[in-house]
Amino acid sequence: MRRLLALALAPLLIAATAPPPAVLPLRQQVEVIDRDLKTRLDTIVPALMRRQGVDMWVLVAREYFEDPVVATMLDARSLHARRRTILVFFDPGEGKPVERLTVSRYGLAGLFAPTWDPAKQPDQWRALADLIAQRNPKKIAVNVSSLTAFADGMTASQYRDMLAALPEPLRGRVVETPELAVGWLETRSPDQLAAYPGIMKIAHGIIADAFSSKVITPGKTTTADVQWWMRERIRSLGLETWFHPSIDAFRQGEKDALDGDTVIRPGDMLWCDFGITYLRLNTDTQHLAYVLKPGERDAPAGLKAGLAGAHKVQDALTSRFRLGVTGNTLLAEARAAAIAQGLQPTIYSHPIGYHGHAAGSAIGFWDDQGPAPTGNHPLVANTAFSIELSNAMAVPEWGGQVVSFRQEEDGWFDGQRFQWIDGRQESFYLIPS
Q1: Handedness of CA 14, 385, 40, 86 (dihedral sign)
Q2: Neighbouring C-alpha atoms within 13 Å toward the C-beta of 243
Q3: With 0-12 CB in 10 A as exposed, 13-18 as middle and 19+ as buried, what is 153?
Q4: pLDDT in tens, 85-133
Q5: Is 229 within a domain?
Q6: Coil, helix or strand for 17?
Q7: Residue 409 has what pLDDT?
Q8: How would you label 229-239 residue by residue, b for 16+ Cβ within 10 Å and e otherwise?
Q9: Which conformational region is residue 415 in: left (phi greater than 0), alpha (psi within -120 to 50 degrees), or beta?
Q10: Do 64 and 130 share a domain, yes or no?
Q11: Residue 98 lies in a domain
């Protein structure tokens, strides 16, 4: 019987353990990152500044206290802000290119023109003030925001010192424009969108291996063992992660999910929350697996129905993506549509990209299904989202026990429609006993 079961599951196991795409050597990764960064600086920043009517944008970061935006504008060899790094964008108007300048001690791979000679002007703030005065901008945007951390990278002391260095007439031109920071971070370039499917395939491949007999021996392996296998796998590939993986077991007769050093048993439904960071882009995925009992060849119908219900919630949300709609509106519309189908949805989706929980419009929170200030941001084209949600459903095979079927998949919105970056989980990973 075991031999027959193994043969029946062979196609599933082979598909689940297919090797992920090769990770590029570091030198090639740097070339990819810097090439894309130059394109983004050439195209996205000018468009954002002109859309907001801003002719100068000043960004300041300090070593060990990074501005979230500056961290994504540094070339892949610079890695971090050095001492105090000041970046300046200036739009001279009349169709001329936007200047990219830096008032810093160190070069930035030619992406920003150096303008400060400490031997001639030891005061870095005075050097910045002189640069600003020479260009005489109408609006000087800075990254200060009480709503979002992504646009709040200038610390109080940096803000105070910059204002003190500026001549009085220029101080009144300083404006807080969070739309610049959010717009830069939320917009994906064509090269990033082309790279994302390969990144997702790597993440999906790690999950498939983790949820297989390669890693899990029912009755022996614990949920924590799987977590640490995933962490080791990430490291062995030369990748990073932005959060520690989660592995829970859902079990008949257990009201709550089981984690920690829970021994995985036949009949368990397993859940993971997993992400990687590669080429400065992040993934965030929640998938489900089922541990077959002896003699079983598939997950119980009730569990499969629960996964299908989660798919319906996904569809209720992603089918309503459109330009200009806010996350709060999407949340309300999708919940209403899902509830009308008899589902019990909880939606807590978010943008993804340079950060895991990234800049852009939030679409609900797991502990708050109402409108939120961070959900007022309108959707724009070429953005990526992690469609994170769950559907609660009673499982007949488990005595009517209500189970939360959690799913999370990454996709992107091109301005007209939403599409998955690398598909979505359509069926359970099956783990033989």
Answers
A1: negative
A2: 14
A3: buried
A4: 999 999 999 989 999 999 998 778 899 999 999 999 999 999 999 999 9
A5: yes
A6: coil
A7: 98
A8: bbeebbeebeb
A9: left
A10: yes
A11: yes
